[in-house]
């Protein structure tokens, strides 16, 4: 009788644990950045939202996103306050801190930009003049080579509007921006004739990265991979990514 009771207790415990795990995988709580149009906007919309929401929807998971500045989003994921963070570039500085799936959301190329009337004379990023002031966004990833560049002084700013304004005011010499994002903000600010792209910084693989403090992180990454594959198979992924270019032109 005692053995039977213990067996029933064990089965009940396992069922409860299984149910709790299933419940925890019905909704994923994510931190989305607020200043990376057309991929992630302050309104909680954008290409990344569409990809992530639809991919998880195909595997029966609802997405609950909070929109915050990118640097805060990264910290929230590191501390386990959310299950994952939008648009994190996989590189040496992030691989050890987050759980990544096999599939990136997309790849994105970042370039150096300067003011047309005060150009920087260099053929590539390795030949920038001594003490070149380079504007970047706080918390963003810009490739493993950035720390190795000679002759630069990094100026960290909060958002793209600040970055572009300081470039226009000659407070920085160049800015690094992801190309589709740069096109979006330069067009919105009406300064397409004043700022131009000069050369590439890097191309990064952009992921939804999961918190190592979430016990279900690896499973969520696997489910996202499955959802992205389904979107690619039915053509939805290609349609969403095609909209990125058209949004940047609008």
Q: What can you see in these coordinates?
A:
The chain is built from eight helices and eleven strands. It is globular, with a radius of gyration of 22 Å. Strand 2 and strand 3 (40-41) form a beta hairpin. It is an alpha/beta fold and 250 residues long. It is 39% helix and 28% strand. The chain starts with a helix and ends with a helix. This is Transporter substrate-binding domain-containing protein. It holds the Pfam family SBP_bac_3. Residues 29-242 form the Solute-binding protein family 3/N-terminal domain.
Low-confidence stretches: 1-22
Q: How would a crystallographer describe the biggest sheet?
A: 9 strands, mixed
Give the ordered list of helices and strands: HEEEHEHEHEEEEHEHEHH
Mean pLDDT reading: 89
- Using only C-alpha atoms, the radius of gyration works out to 22 Å
Alpha-beta content class:
alpha/beta
Distance between the termini: 73 Å
Fraction in beta strands: 25-35%
- Percent range for helical residues? 25-40%
Please tally the helical runs, counting DSSP H or I stretches of 4 or more residues: 8
Shape: globular
Number of strands: 11
Keywords: Signal
Family: Belongs to the bacterial solute-binding protein 3 family.
Domain Solute-binding protein family 3/N-terminal: 29-242
Signal peptide: 1-21
